[in-house]
Amino acid sequence: MHFVTVLSSGPPMIDDYEKNGYLVLKSFFSETELYELRQVVSHFHEEWKLQNAQFYAESAINSAYLTAEKYLKASERESLFRFIGSGKLMTIVTSIMGDRPAFMNTQLFFDPVNKAQRNYWHRDTQYHLSIEQQQQALSGPKVVHFRIPLFDEPGIELIPGSHQRWDSDEELYVRLEQNGRKNYNELSSGVAVPLNAGDLLIFSASMIHRGLYGRDRLSLDILFCDPVPELMKFVDDSSLPSPEIVAKLENAVAFECALASKTKNSY
Ligand SMILES: O=C(O)CCC(=O)C(=O)O
Q1: pLDDT tens-digit map of 94-142
Q2: Which residue, among 156, 203, 144, has the nearest Cα to 22 in the 3D structure?
Q3: From the CB of 121, is ligand 1 less than 6 Å away?
Q4: How far is 47 from 72, CA to CA, in rounded Å?
């Protein structure tokens, strides 16, 4: 495993994202900006664990739909929507994704209860697309993770450039557990990206990656995508804000885009 080298300051390196499929912005959020997010996300996590006790105890490493009505109070949902729809975050989102990114989902990553549980290499696309479709997806509409670690954590291991190219034989065998390989085997092309609270990691959902467990991590992933029907069908209606909340956001474009494509295509 290699470790990534990052610059701690300077302008966003959008070209680096295009080339490598990921970008780390160190200390992007201040402690003050993280404070309320931590409160809300921690509350969601406690409620989620209570209602998913068996799944949590047995195998879970993430939950999703944090902005839905199920676990959070209205004021906490509004706080999450304000964070996502902040001018600061959306400036980066639009510089990576263009003028019309759609909000897709949120996910919360944590450590498995079973400390022996192994992490696994994957492309996000492999769970709903055939091999041929996964290949085509490399040049298709984009899904991008914006990961916000709430505490210092081991981060993610990524294969740079794999958002634009197909797997080597070694990568494919490991990711799909073929020819005796396991999806937790080391890949020589992997680069580890350790993260601190306040960093922002941006990475393509199409690239080969795996989480690095440990340090009781709690990492919020906000996913944005190009607003096309084959991706918008994954957007959960109850995770979108009401018009009253949309009107309060500094930059609501991603929610407006999601709401507009939902209405247009009525999934
Ligand atoms: O952090 C993890 O455990 C995995 C992260 C991941 O696979 C993802 O965000 O798609």
Answers
A1: 999 999 999 999 999 999 999 999 999 999 999 999 999 999 999 999 9
A2: 203
A3: no
A4: 8
Distances, alpha carbon 237 to alpha carbons 64, 95, 113, 127, 262, in Å: 13, 26, 30, 21, 8
Helices 253-265 and 74-84, axial angle in degrees (round to 10): 110
Among protein residues, the one with the nearest Cα to ligand 1's atom 1 is: 211
| Residue 194 CA to ligand 1 centre (angstroms) | 13
> Is residue 3's pLDDT more than 80?
no
The phi and psi torsions of 74 (rounded to 5 degrees) equal: -55, -40
- pLDDT given for residue 267 in this prediction: 46
pLDDT at 8 over 60: no
Domains of the chain: 17-265 (2.60.120.620)
Task: At 24, give phi and psi (nearest 5°).
Answer: -115, 125
Is 64 close to ligand 1, i.e. is its CB under 6 Å away?
no
- The alpha carbon of 264 and the centre of ligand 1 are apart by a number of angstroms equal to 31
**In the chain, % of residues over pLDDT 90:** 92
This prediction has a pTM of: 0.94
Expressed in angstroms and rounded, the spacing between residue 110 Cα and the centre of ligand 1 is 9
Rounded distance from Cα 211 to ligand 1 centre (Å): 5
266 pLDDT more than 90: no
